[in-house]
Design brief:
The chain is of the alpha+beta class. It contains twelve helices and 13 strands. The strands form three sheets. The protein has a five-stranded antiparallel β-sheet with strand order 2-1-5-4-3, with helices on both faces. It has a five-stranded mixed β-sheet with strand order 7-9-10-12-11, covered by helices on one side. Strands 6-8-13 form a three-stranded antiparallel β-sheet.
């Protein structure tokens, strides 16, 4: 108990004892005590009303001096009030600085609460997505930006994924949207203009596709003449080896052009249709039969659920199988083993290729699906690899809404897992 509170209690008790004493002198102790208690209560009520009036008017002259309990209350109130004013001013300065910082950002930033209602946004988001800071405050973001992919992103809570949507205010422009955690029960929607990046990517794809088409015709002519020379029995002996090398390199260039054209087609295509059921078990069996005839090849085994089918493009899934299997064969010794597995997994399905080969260093795994990336360039070139197979696998899987998971340990082999969503699977145990 504070000193002022203790004095208040002591004075109140003495005042009431004085009332009881006065009443005792007149033979009415109880009435004396009650009268003084009512006087004390009336005084405190008057002080309370005065303090309330001072709170409303700001005039605390009656409470600025003295050691009474009400003076102490005013002193404590003034201290907390001044501290609150200082904090409020500090928060306002901080908010102004944050707004200046966010307004200086080229990317749009929208703070959303737990109900996806707009708490605040910066100036850039108005230019990018048409949001207005004051008018749209408190509105649900999915009522303003109605793109289905963005709505799914905001409601999904996946902070690792981003989506690209067309700009609602500028035709031909594209926006990259991502959600990150922000404060308690809030999230931050970051919107970035990626039009230039997408245009450059399209230009690159178009250039690769056009260059591949243009190179294909002259390369076909060159390959034809080289093949004729290689098959000519009258070819001078000193030309045999050079012609064989030219033939090998022309075949390699044809392979590169085919894979570049296939990769360009996959990149420029949308999601694959799901009206064709693919017998993946049969594809794996056919791939095994095709590669089993290779000399010095590792042992290939197939484990597949025969009733499990995949909905999509058969040629592209066949390309996935062939590329993964040929990649495993290049890096697995003849006494090794490669397992092709096709199985259901909680409604989804997994196509995996696991080998007992060399394995891959951890730092190389994130780059395996990049164009022309080779962990061992010399070995890959000798074995015929050009570094496009896994890039084709990646984009073929994207067309089928699937993901590629790679796990490997140097010296203990690698496993490539293609995870297909449930809407791409039929004939699984859940459907039977």
């Amino acid at each position: 108990m504070s000193e002022s509170a203790r004095k208040f209690v002591i004075n109140l008790v003495l005042f009431l004892l004085a009332g009881a004493g006065v009443g005792w002198l007149y033979g009415q102790t109880q009435w004396g005590l009650l009268t003084f208690a009512l006087v004390a209560l009336g005084w405190q009520v008057w002080q309370l009303l005065s303090f309330d009036r001072a709170l409303r008017t700001g005039n605390f002259d009656n409470f600025r001096v003295g050691e009474s309990l009400w003076a102490q209350l005013f002193s404590r109130f003034r201290f907390e009030h001044e501290r609150a004013v200082r904090r409020k001013a500090g928060y306002r300065r901080l908010l102004r600085e944050v707004r200046k910082s966010t307004d200086a950002m080229p990317d749009g930033a929208v703070i959303l609460d737990a109900n996806n209602e707009i708490v605040s946004c910066n100036r850039a988001v108005g230019e990018l997505a048409g949001l207005k800071r004051k008018k749209d405050k408190g509105q649900r973001i999915d009522n303003i930006l109605r793109n289905p992919e963005l709505v799914a992103l905001v409601n999904g809570g996946d902070f690792e994924r981003s989506v690209e949507i067309p700009s609602p205010v500028q035709d031909g422009h594209w926006l990259n949207c991502r959600v990150v955690p922000y404060g308690a029960d809030q999230k931050l929607l970051i919107i970035r203009d990626v039009t230039d990046r997408l245009r450059l990517a399209k230009m690159r794809r178009d250039f690769v596709a056009n260059a591949s088409h243009e190179l294909r015709s002259p390369l076909t002519v060159i390959s034809g003449y080289v093949d004729s020379l290689a098959d000519d029995d009258e070819l001078p002996s000193q030309w045999v080896k050079p012609v064989q090398q030219m033939r090998s390199q022309s075949q390699r260039m044809n392979q590169i052009l085919r894979e570049l054209m296939e990769l360009s087609r996959l990149e420029s295509s949308g999601v694959a249709a799901n009206d064709n059921a693919i017998d993946v078990a049969q594809l794996l069996s056919d791939a095994k039969n095709t590669f089993d005839g290779q000399a010095d090849g590792a042992n290939i085994i197939v484990e597949a659920e025969p009733r499990l089918k995949l909905l999509g493009n058969q040629a592209e899934i066949e390309s996935v199988v062939v590329n993964l299997l040929s990649n495993a064969l290049r890096h697995t010794p003849p006494d090794g083993q490669i397992c092709l597995r096709w199985q259901s997994d909680d409604g989804a399905a997994i196509l995996s290729v696991k080998d007992t080969g060399d394995g891959i260093q951890p730092e190389h795994i994130p780059h395996l699906t990049e164009r022309f990336f080779r962990v061992d360039r010399g070995r890959s070139r000798d074995a015929g690899g050009v570094g496009l197979g896994l890039a084709i696998v990646k984009h073929a899987l994207l067309r089928h809404e699937a993901t590629l998971e790679i796990s490997s340990e140097p010296g203990n082999g690698s496993e490539f897992r293609c995870v297909f969503p449930a809407n791409r699977v039929t004939g699984s145990s859940a459907d039977l």
